[in-house]
Amino acid sequence: MKTISTVGWYASIFNQHKHETNGFTMDYEAASDDKVFDMKPVSQGLIDFLTNGVIKCTKPEHLQILKKNIAYLIGLRHRQQEAWTNKLADFETRLNNTRKWVQEHTR
Fold first, then answer.
1. pLDDT of res. 5
2. Which of 18, 57, 65, 80 is deepest in the core (most CB within 10 A)?
3. Domain limits at 52?
4. Which residues of the chain register pLDDT less than 70?
5. Residues 82, 31: contact at Cβ < 8 Å?
6. Residue 1: what pLDDT?
7. Which among 10, 9, 11, 24 is positioned nearest to 69, based on CA atoms?
8. CB-based burial of residue 94 (10 Å sphere; 0-12 exposed, 13-18 middle, 19+ buried)?
9. Spatial separation of the C-alpha atoms in residues 77 and 47, rounded to whole Å
10. Number of domains present in the structure of the chain
């Protein structure tokens, strides 16, 4: 029962990503950091499930599209990591600016 639940859970996540990216066609490289940041994160668990499980039981005629979708999700995951890095740097800058302002105005 747990295996069926796990498969259904990952299938749901996969479909959420598919919906959010317009069928894996959204140009995530051109998307703003805010857009990518606000999307559901692509988990390494999903990538592992697809590459270590689903791909092994997929019919040969469906392998090409599955591999394309996996590659898309891996690329999106990398872009999300980039967006997070940029956001964290922006937050750090804002925090430092706030600290500086507080120090200058509370003497």
1. 83
2. 80
3. 2-105
4. 1-4
5. no
6. 43
7. 24
8. exposed
9. 9
10. 1
